[in-house]
Structure formats: structure tokens, C-alpha cells
Design brief:
Helix content is about 40%, strand content about 15%. By secondary structure, the protein is α/β, with parallel strands linked by helices. The structure holds S-adenosylmethionine. The site of S-adenosylmethionine has 24 residues, from strand 2 and helix 5.
Length: about 290
């Protein structure tokens, strides 16, 4: 994708507006409101929108997305009777799997009305599955296990201590938190990466920031959460993005019909740029497992 398609912006600008840590910034839901049908064109059938885990090279994207969820559930030791909290549940597949395949009860939090509407179609009468239009900032009910895939990128660094503090408050002494997030990894002086980050912020995400590893582990430790395990999934994000790009390009006409040519092109710039930075190692993606210290 030609770099010239990325709009020029002021580099070094501070994008963050500070919000009190107990307040939810609804802008973090903006990216998910374009159209459920648009996302369904290029995500896998489970509508999972984070890095997958290709356990075997011949897996489909759908299988790899559920392999990623199962990998996380194994790490936290999810089992029958556990109450799971999924922070940033997206279209709801993870929480539904916890209930259907692991015998847990589950609550999923999202800031997107479109996602909530879709996720609620998964709820069957009598099952212990619930989705809420609510941020972690106000969520109070205790739980046994917490997972979060691809949502931390929206929280922004002033809120990291409050996020880990809230997880610590909600978990019992033997509780576990599995956090999957994109990180800024290899030190980079790349002007193009800064320009790309500005484009993403301005055009598609509104509220986002990528943490360095120490910005994840440090505040977690301060909040009383001990890092037990960390695993990079970086090559898996390249494969995930390549699958999304192929799907989106294959559905070009329908994607433009549902949204616009401009939005279709912005998504391609975003997905192709993201794949490039995961390939180079300037961005990474990790699953962090925390226990109560
Ligand atoms: C990239 S999506 C990932 C969705 C899902 N975890 C998955 O893997 O498919 C990010 C999700 O984080 C949610 N989110 C962002 N900020 C949040 C907050 N403060 N509290 C709860 N959810 C939040 C968004 O609404 C969205 O559902």
C-alpha cells in the first residue's frame, strides 16, 4: 500500500485527554459502530477482532481464533463454576465459549451498542451469560477469572494503574488475569510509524495508545498482580492480518456498498500498515498472565 495514501499530520502531538480513572470514555467504542455487517465481511464467523493463534499451519482463521481463546482459558485454568469477566468482549464469542465449553458463567463488557446488540443474540434462556454496555471503570461484581483481548489498547496509559487496581479488587486470592495486548516493541525512530499512529488515531480509533512492555508489567505489579507468564504471538498477528486483508479485498464491492470507498480504503491502509509493523517487530502482541501477589 503506497505510503502517500496516509494523510499527513502533526507528529509528536499528544492525543490523550486526561479523564478521571473512574470515568469511561465512550469514544473507545467508536471504532466498532461502523456496521456489524461490514465487520462480518472480513472477520471470521465468530466475529473475533484480535490476534488469533495458529496452533497448526492448516487451521482456518475461525479455528485459530478459538485456539487463542482456549490457550488463554487454559492459562487461567478456567473451569466449571468459575465466574469469568471478559473486559472488551467485542461481539461476544469469548464469553459465550466460556459458558458453552467450560461450564463457567460469564459477563462481557463492551462500549459499543452494535456489539452489544449482536452479542446478546448469543444468550439462551437459563444460561449464565450476560453482556453489558459498560466499561471496567464502573464494573463492581467480583469474579474468579478475567480475560481481555485487544481492549487494553483503548485504555491509554493514565488509566493503566486504575485498570490493574480494578482487576485486583475483583479477583480472589487464587484469581487470574489474562491480558492480550499489542505493544510497542522494538525501539523505533521511524517517522512513518508515527505518521501511521496519527492516521489510526485520527481516522479510525479516536482513543488508542500502544504500551511498552514495562508499562504493562509495572502498573500491574504496583496494583498487586504478579506476572506469571508472558508469550509473544507476533507471527500470529501477521497471519491474522493477512487473512483479514484477503477477506476484505475479496468483499470490496460489498464493503463499499455497506460503508464507502473512503472507509474501505482507510481500513486497508490500517490493516496493511499493521501487518508491516508486526513483521518488522516495531509492534508486538503478548498474552500476559497475572496472579494475585
Ligand atoms: C478490538 S475489540 C476486541 C474485542 C474482543 N475482545 C475480541 O477479541 O474480539 C476491543 C473491545 O474493547 C472494548 N473496550 C474499549 N474500552 C473499554 C473499556 N474501558 N471497558 C470495557 N470495554 C472496552 C470495545 O468496546 C471493544 O469491544
Amino acid at each position: 500500500m503506497a505510503e502517500s495514501r496516509i494523510p499527513r499530520g502533526r507528529v509528536g502531538q499528544t492525543y490523550r485527554r486526561s479523564l478521571p480513572s473512574d470515568q469511561t470514555d465512550r469514544n473507545a467504542g467508536f471504532h466498532y459502530e461502523f456496521s456489524n455487517e461490514f465487520y462480518a465481511l472480513w472477520l471470521d464467523p465468530t466475529m473475533t477482532y484480535s490476534c488469533a493463534y495458529f496452533e497448526r499451519p492448516d487451521q482456518t482463521l475461525e479455528e485459530a481464533q478459538m485456539a487463542k481463546v482456549d490457550l488463554a482459558f487454559r492459562k487461567v485454568g478456567l473451569g466449571p463454576g468459575h465466574r469469568l469477566l471478559d473486559v472488551g468482549c467485542g461481539w461476544g464469542a469469548t464469553a459465550a465459549r466460556a459458558v458453552e465449553k467450560y461450564g463457567a458463567s460469564a459477563v462481557g463488557l463492551t462500549l459499543s451498542q452494535n456489539q452489544l446488540t449482536y452479542a446478546q443474540t448469543r444468550v439462551r434462556p437459563g444460561t449464565a451469560l450476560e453482556y453489558r454496555l459498560e466499561g471496567w471503570e464502573t464494573y463492581q461484581a467480583p469474579c474468579d477469572r478475567i480475560v481481555s483481548f485487544g481492549a487494553f489498547e483503548h485504555f491509554t496509559s493514565p488509566k493503566y494503574p486504575a485498570f490493574f487496581g480494578r482487576c485486583r479488587e475483583l479477583l480472589p486470592a487464587d484469581g487470574r488475569l489474562l491480558l492480550q495486548t499489542i505493544t510497542v516493541s522494538k525501539p523505533s525512530r521511524s517517522f512513518e510509524l508515527l505518521r501511521f499512529a496519527y492516521f489510526l488515531h485520527k481516522e479510525l480509533f479516536q482513543r488508542s495508545e500502544l504500551p511498552r512492555l514495562e508499562q504493562v508489567v509495572g502498573p500491574a505489579r504496583e496494583a498487586g498482580l504478579e506476572l506469571l507468564h508472558a508469550e509473544t504471538l507476533r507471527p500470529h498477528y501477521v497471519a491474522t492480518l493477512e487473512a483479514w486483508i484477503a477477506n476484505l479485498e475479496g468483499q470490496k464491492a460489498e464493503a463499499i456498498r455497506l460503508t464507502s470507498t473512503a472507509l474501505y480504503e482507510k481500513f486497508l491502509v490500517y490493516l496493511e500498515g499493521a501487518a508491516r509493523y508486526f513483521r518488522s517487530g516495531e509492534t508486538g502482541v503478548y498474552q500476559f498472565l497475572f496472579g494475585v501477589a
